[in-house]
């Protein structure tokens, strides 16, 4: 159970709450953690921090601004580019000599800006060059000649890669990457601005605005307030420019003391005089906003001291420490309507993600979390204290032996050491020694518990003691007062012993922490003193008289929740004091490993089996005491009747289950209906059902049931239930019955074929050996698919049982080995390995307008026009109000917003223009345009469960896992991926035991990529965003990332979108749905020679380790209807015929993705006996590939007849 | 890996081959053939012996038939103990099939409860379930269930429907992740040698020190005689030494083993 819980923690994506204590030390508290952890970079003390998910900005005690960018496996890199221009002259050919009217010899792309290679310098000390300048040999997805020159008639012109008779000028592009290196440390923001314009020292900072627009990637609004009360905006802060470029002064109506910027367009600041000012006019085109308006303080005597804003909430603290909530705040009315007083007195409050709120109490300087903040109750319910200790405190709960090595850093001053330890001990035991501050932390463990067994973290604890000591200089002299107390005498004794450093204890201590501990003494009290004097509001003034002696409960000065995501589904462990007892339970239960559990569970099972054998073996012919009768479930459902006019009609449904003597069951589903006053029924044998799939439909809770026959017809049996629960009961029961009748249970095998529908539902099918080869090929409409819980956009696997998926929100997930989940409850679901999973996707609607001479564009269309609010096709009316999430499982998590990322581009307000409605749209208005539309998006979220664990933090676009040979289990499995930003990544440490792997290795590219595939022999192919294909050279187990990219020309100027590499075959898919086979690949020439067209109408494809080809095809004709998104299997794929001959149609439509990369199940040799020639060919190995290449070449003349048959082979429309 | 489910299944489908013979003094019209049946360990005698009753009634005069009861080697068999418990308690050393004598007269009022209908068995069964849940969850789970869930549990047992039963019983065997186990482990220890019908005590799954209790700990605590090698009286199947270490009490599978069959904690 404990182990399971641990795993669940891992599964839950964590985020951080940032806080600064009164000594300026920065701590973070994870949403899955229990302890405050000291920020990795402890060089500086801070007075303010403002965090978002990817970074944290802060003002240190030197009044400088710093940014702390989290490290990650993917580097932050920026491509610098410049163009070298040349003109042809009859004497010297192309040369650097240009005409006087020409551009510079070195210029930007437009030619207007002179930029030589050496004019590029690093923007700040936080950057480094990745390599030297090199020439880009790629123009629009096409490789250029060596040297990278592109040719044109004259300069402002279109360039081609081919030199023609009239090419008078040429240019080539030089590129160089620089990389941001200051990650996981506080990087000082170096100001290169004009000294006169330089801001005075800073006093407050706030980061937000990332929801305003996602362009450029990672854009942030960074606002700062200087000591003189002026407001500054940091320009151009985004992912590849984490420091921003310069400060711009924003004029304000008065002197500002504090500022708060929400995730979206809300920005409030407080004035010295006690009013708040609200920024108006912040939007995508103007993230700085336009003007200020003023909001008065809730009370006339006490002005506003502090304000914090979220997406659509504002909280403030007035000078009398009262907390207020602003009512009626939203994007259209950023000022809100009125103040409501809240319970509690706070120093400050911070609003984080999801509008969650934290505050620092005046009483005890503890951080409180506002509980019960929900979209419907934004003000929440109660304040709850976060009692998490610091990691340093935790160490003190250990045994006294842990103090052994404490002396190793401070051999010169024993008195101080003693104090430090006393404080440490006392700190977990009591807070009551804070005389001026009433303490309300109740359940602190007794000293005895604190001093219980600590065990193996000896070294760690010791060093933490040192940290405490050195960072709390003021505590030292306070400590003397408490030395006398009896409980400390023991510690004193211990300390005497501890003067001999314990080397073994030290060994356990990690390097980083050691460094930290040693660093501390360097920062002396002087910096701290500065801190306290500077802060007017944020810092606790630590007067000499003030006694807080042995109290070690953290006293906080500042907290920032801007990067902290707390939602209903994440249980927090912040509110209980981790006692010695519970930690020992934890460690104990952790000591029972899953392996042990499995061992004795197996033993029980064996003994039970033995008992059964003993008691039953000779008596199996006895009659059973309880007759296994027919078991029947009946109910009333609706059925989509199969005669015209098609409509839903009420039917009675009966599922009859017959149990055989072996305990196995077969079932028949009866559907009773009335036809012209006549009672009729249809029945389905569940052992013939191939799939039961939920049809998400806002109007009906319906599902479809397919048999091979129904698949051929493209006309399933559709049933609907009155409630979601009822439907899930039926689905669960029918699924279980189907699995039972097919004797399928437990997790899918390593060879399983996985697929995903366009609704994100996951299905898995066990391949039979006859699926890929044999005299009698199994038609793929007979494959049985069962559902697995979870929600994914794509899924990839290999034949070692390693399965990864990517959600619609690009989150990466790894398969846990479980089964069931989702609606599949009870016994059809594994008890372990099922975790919560969530996904977010966008729902889009279109606002359509027509131009008329009187009013211009308006929402009044022609009578023949589409709805003014519609879906993409225009056929369905979709208004903001009537559009609902796809199913009750989904809930909205944002408001409607204009989507600017529509293909074709948009203008500044998101509009796209066209001549008339069903047309292609463009992002600017022309004379010929009479209609326009814009896309609105709204995010919705599903929370479900399934056998998936998140692989944070990099979000992904594509994955490929190598189909491995019979490697041993320990060997690392090559897994390549494309991040959603287009970075190519290589996962390290992926093994069968640890399918999630350990870390990402970034593989540099000159442009973003969209698709990747790794074949059986480490052939890595990839597709770039510009549609070009690349081959990665020299990838091997020893060199997992390979060495360089080879640009492969695309087929006939098609833009490619997907690649899949099987054992030896390479297939690509272009953006027009054509499937191509790479001809001429040999081990010595793995890039191949030419592309052969195979089929059209393909949406997605997967080439397996047997070189089998499976696709998702569109426009598949069935006997009753047409289907889009249909699983199809290429038949007659053989070593001599790698492209196969025709398509076999399987389940669909509505399928989105399939992977057959786990299926290495070949037909048995016996089955292939009579086709000995083939079996010979199949059994050939890599060394035969050379000859295979030859045979393919020798077959080239046949190409003509192949292409003649092309139409017959394609998926029919 | 062995799944919990495999264990549950084996426990559920545990069967005891039984031979029913009519008591010699019963008056019959013709000779009564013995009747052979596979009895489910987890069920109750009177619940699964309709066939037996019918079989012997055929050879008896109607007026000779009164309430049926069973006896093994002179011991009347309590119908309200699970069959597996009865077998392990009284007959585990016997050669199979288990030979049970069927009586229709001289109901031993002192030893046995009357069982006039299946409702009585149902009432008894539900009372056991409720008692167990009172120990496990302060009755919270059972009380939150609907009437039809209770019915499904019972019907599952009555009709030998493993899935049907476990679809509901699963809820009774869960505990919130923040708790590390049940409040108390529901168990009863039956011994053939003592007069005491059974031993029952409050027993927490986790020791005060935080470590998880094992079945061995439980026995040491409540029935030390059972784990000394000399003590042969205790009819707990799980007293084989290797089994004790296997039976970490915190694990559902094991607990359900105890819960449903071996110790007959119902």
From TrEMBL, chain A:
Any one Gene Ontology BP term: autophagosome maturation
GO CC annotation terms, alphabetical: autophagosome membrane; cytoplasmic vesicle; lysosomal membrane
Keywords in alphabetical order: Autophagy, Cytoplasmic vesicle, Lipid-binding, Lysosome, Membrane, Repeat
Pfam families: Hyd_WA, Pex24p, Tectonin
Keyword Repeat among UniProt keywords: yes
InterPro entries in alphabetical order: Beta-propeller_rpt_TECPR (IPR006624), Peroxin/Ferlin (IPR006614), PH-like_dom_sf (IPR011993), PH_domain (IPR001849), TECPR1-like_DysF (IPR010482), Tectonin_beta-prop (IPR051513)
Location within or outside the cell: Cytoplasmic vesicle, Autophagosome membrane; Lysosome membrane
Top-level division of the source organism's lineage: Eukaryota
Keyword Membrane: yes
Span list, region Disordered: 1169-1213
PH domain span: 630-739
GO terms assigned for molecular function: phosphatidylinositol-3-phosphate binding
Main location (coarse class): membrane
Family: Belongs to the TECPR1 family.
Protein name in UniProt: Tectonin beta-propeller repeat-containing protein 1
Lineage: Eukaryota, Metazoa, Chordata, Craniata, Vertebrata
TrEMBL record, chain B:
Single GO term (MF): Atg8-family ligase activity
UniProt cross-references to InterPro entries, sorted A to Z: Atg5 (IPR007239), ATG5_HBR (IPR048940), Atg5_HR (IPR042526), ATG5_UblA (IPR048939), Atg5_UblA_dom_sf (IPR042527), ATG5_UblB (IPR048318)
Highest taxon of source: Eukaryota
Domain Autophagy protein ATG5 UblA residue range list: 11-104
Keywords from the UniProt entry: Autophagy, Isopeptide bond, Membrane, Ubl conjugation
Keyword Nucleotide-binding: no
Keyword set includes NAD: no
Membrane-protein topology: Peripheral membrane protein
GO cellular component terms, semicolon-separated: Atg12-Atg5-Atg16 complex; autophagosome; mitochondria-associated endoplasmic reticulum membrane contact site; phagophore; phagophore assembly site membrane
Autophagy protein ATG5 alpha-helical bundle region domain segment(s): 119-174
UniProt-listed Gene3D superfamilies: 3.10.20.620, Autophagy protein Apg5, helix rich domain (1.10.246.190), Phosphatidylinositol 3-kinase Catalytic Subunit, Chain A, domain 1 (3.10.20.90)
Domain Autophagy protein ATG5 UblB, chain residue ranges per copy: 184-231
Subcellular location(s) per record: Preautophagosomal structure membrane
GO terms (BP aspect): autophagy of mitochondrion; cellular response to nitrogen starvation; piecemeal microautophagy of the nucleus; vacuole organization
Function description: Involved in autophagic vesicle formation.
Family of this protein: Belongs to the ATG5 family.
Subunit structure: Forms a conjugate with ATG12. Part of the minor complex composed of 4 sets of ATG12-ATG5 and ATG16L1 (400 kDa); this complex interacts with ATG3 leading to disruption of ATG7 interaction and promotion of ATG8-like proteins lipidation. Forms an 800-kDa complex composed of ATG12-ATG5 and ATG16L2. The ATG12-ATG5 conjugate interacts with RAB33A; this interaction is bridged by ATG16L1 and promotes ATG12-ATG5-ATG16L1 complex recruitment to phagophores. Interacts with TECPR1; the interaction is direct and does not take place when ATG16L1 is associated with the ATG5-ATG12 conjugate.
Full protein name: Autophagy protein 5
Organism of origin: Falco tinnunculus
